[in-house]
């Protein structure tokens, strides 16, 4: 089975694309556990992510991915993974990331990372907090992929262009397997 990861800064169309790709390939997509977890935290406590949230978020993401992996045969679309959590943790907490997350995040078990560029309109919500930092975050996300030597392609353009590019990339991967 090939796992595809949508990876990149906030508000760059990852969830939209995950849904589109899952529909196109008639497969499942793994939602971003952190969004659900943190939205509940915001709704009940009016707080954003804190260090003690990182391990529960990581465990929740891994659980969702494992459950979805058991239900598909050929292709799984992941709307984020632990590498994204690692990047955000290190960014928000001055280089800190729990060792368990670092260890799991740097295991490459994905066919390709589709790195979403920041050329989509910013969409504000309760959890997104740095619209002015998207280019900086994009560079950090790409640097992490290079550091880990993980395979990736950058997706740019509007929703239609990104979907078309992603399908071409995934079709090539599927041909090879």
TrEMBL record:
Domain NadR/Ttd14 AAA: 3-162
InterPro entries, alphabetized: NAD_biosynth-regulator (IPR052735), NadR/Ttd14_AAA_dom (IPR038727), P-loop_NTPase (IPR027417)
UniProt cross-references to Gene3D superfamilies, sorted A to Z: P-loop containing nucleotide triphosphate hydrolases
PANTHER family for this protein: NADR_TTD14 AAA DOMAIN-CONTAINING PROTEIN (PTHR37512:SF1), TRIFUNCTIONAL NAD BIOSYNTHESIS/REGULATOR PROTEIN NADR (PTHR37512)
Name of protein: AAA family ATPase
